[in-house]
Amino acid sequence: MLTFFEMLAEYDLALDETGSLASRAGDLSLSTPCAGWDLADLFGHMVGQNLGFAAAVAEGDAPVAAYASVPVTAEDLADRWQESATRVREAFGAAAPEATIHLAEFGFRPTVKVALGMQLLDAAIHAWDVATALGRDYRPSEATVIVVLEMARQIAARPGGTPVFAAPLAENGEDSWGDALRLLGRDPERHVEPSH
């Protein structure tokens, strides 16, 4: 298992990789693997999550409205992404890993380290969603793959599933990243329409 600061470094990398994808995303009307969402919707969600988590980590709590999707355009996407990524990165970097925070959108109180793991998973999976919409391949570092796969297995094993991701698909055991995607309702072999 990664230490907090190792995980933070992996998260920084995922944020930077998404920033690179954002700079190439000219047509935000492109469909994504997230059912009903185009790239504008997906990036708006991601920016909102960054800002909400940044506020919760920095202050110990944040209202549900802090996580709201932020409208983005092709012209301002790169700047909005960078601003939100900087805020969430700095918030996690300044926080005590074992401090407890309240994530109002999810209704529970994890440690900062657990919240960072949640954001690392979200960043890596949504980077794949964005890359797929752009017709590109995306695979995070192997350290991130290990973390995401472990968390994806825990999510998929929950009774009744989770409203955050689509119903899990079966692992095939051939590739850890592919299995992580499948467990979170995404099929790396074909376009699917999972929940967000």
TrEMBL record:
Pfam families listed in its UniProt record: MDMPI_N
Molecular function terms from GO: metal ion binding
Source species, domain of life: Bacteria
Domain Mycothiol-dependent maleylpyruvate isomerase metal-binding: from-to ranges: 25-131
Annotated TM spans: none
Protein name: TIGR03086 family protein
Organism: Nocardioides luteus
